[in-house]
Amino acid sequence: MKIVSVDTLVVDFYRTNLVIVRVTTDEGIVGLGEATLEGKERAVQGAIAELAEAVVGLDPTRISRVLYEVARDWYWRGGPVIMTALSSLEMALWDISARDLGVPVSRMLGGATRDRVRAYANGWFSRAVTPEDYAAAATRTVESGFRGLKWDPFENYDLTITTRQMDRVLAQIDAVRSAVGRDVELFIEGHGRFDVRHAIKIAREIAQFDPVWFEEPCPPDNLDALVDIRRASPVPVAAGERWFGRQGFAPALARQAVDFVQPDVTHAGGISELAFISTLAATSYVGFAPHNPSGPLSTAATLQLGAALPNFRYLEIMATDVPWRPEITNERLVLTEEGDILIPDGIGLGIELNLEAIAEHPFTPHPMRMFQDAVYVIRPTDERSFFNLGAGA
């Protein structure tokens, strides 16, 4: 079997554009991957076009060899653009191999250890402003089936937080905790906003609400700062969505910088690299909870990892999405009464594309400005759930 072409499709998804990668073989098998890189879609498309020149003619079933040689031969290594391009190719190659054998990707990773994973919702708070708005949105989301809620309550704070700002944050978290009770897990997102002193201050203040973690409390490019925060924080610390490959995770694990690692399958190296990172995390008894705010293919790949990896703890997923998400693929996710998502058992990644529906939503520029855009305007006004509700059994 040989690769004959690699191409990309781009789909407007409100705050970003999904980048879907198709790897076509001479035997007619098409593997799919995702290369969504918020605000940098055209850059990653260019990297994938260069990648295509290197892999056409190669055997797609030799996944390790193809990825090793391509990564070795590129002079520039690491970073979001190159790693996202490589991750999407690797994902598509797994899809091809599993389709060729007629099995789910998880079967090739060692087989399933479970048939569902615990999920937490992101994006549930869109357009909430007051604590009462957040409480009402949290209640609706829990009523829809979720038992975990994540959000960033820090507006656009930059490195520091004032007493007045802290009071607003605490009022918001308190409103959500009071609305949903103690049985619902809360995850507090920092988006890398704070310096060491203020991150520690925040961690000590939010501990009263018993969050599962404080995510990315400081910028992702200073491991010393993260180590200092984790040592002083009464709340578990999570990080890793902006780290790339084992080189990004091994030092953090060695220095006990985190309680949970959050590699993204579309950025950190793909399926096999996440499996390797999960093994590194397991040796330190650190939870494995991949970052996953993207589209159907990212979710499908992450779910296959959830099936196979024993230390997989949580699946991040958007509570709602653009109304055309169910139209562009055959993705049909089941959310159980216990707040778990059932792992699909289709062939490969289990995703098929609807090219006509994709064509109806072409690329639309969505610049990402973390410290200018309102963090609570995260879903469109016509947002919809894309889950089927199922029983717990």
Brief digest:
The chain is of the alpha/beta class.
SSE ordering: EEEHHHHEHEHEHEHEHEHEHEHEEHE
What is the CATH topology assignment of the largest domain? TIM Barrel
**What is the beta-strand fraction?**
15-25%
CATH superfamily annotation of the largest domain: Enolase-like C-terminal domain
By secondary-structure content and strand pairing, the structural class works out as alpha/beta
Count of discrete alpha- or pi-helical segments spanning 4 or more residues: 13
Helix content: 25-40%
Count of distinct structural domains: 2
Shape: globular
Unreliable sequence segments: none
Rg over CA atoms: 20 Å
User: What's the CATH architecture name of the largest domain?
Assistant: Alpha-Beta Barrel
Mean pLDDT, rounded to whole units?
A: 95
N→C terminal distance: 41 Å
* Largest beta-sheet characterization: 6 strands, parallel
Numbering strands along the chain, what is their spatial order in the largest sheet?
A: 5-6-7-8-9-10
* Tally of DSSP β-strands: 14
Output the CATH class name of the largest domain.
Alpha Beta
Highlighted features:
six-stranded parallel sheet, Enolase-like, domain 1, TIM Barrel, alpha/beta, 13 helices, about 400 residues, 2 domains
Outline the secondary-structure elements.
Layout: E1 3-12, E2 17-25, E3 30-34, H1 41-55, H2 63-73, H3 80-101, H4 105-108, E4 116-122, H5 131-143, E5 148-151, H6 163-180, E6 185-189, H7 196-206, E7 213-215, H8 223-232, E8 237-239, H9 245-254, E9 260-261, H10 271-283, E10 287-288, H11 296-308, E11 315-318, H12 325-328, E12 333-336, E13 340-342, H13 355-359, E14 387-390
Parallel strand pairs: 4-11, 5-6, 6-7, 7-8, 8-9, 9-10, 12-14
Antiparallel strand pairs: 1-2, 2-3, 4-13
Helix pairs in contact: 1-3, 2-3, 5-6, 7-8, 9-10
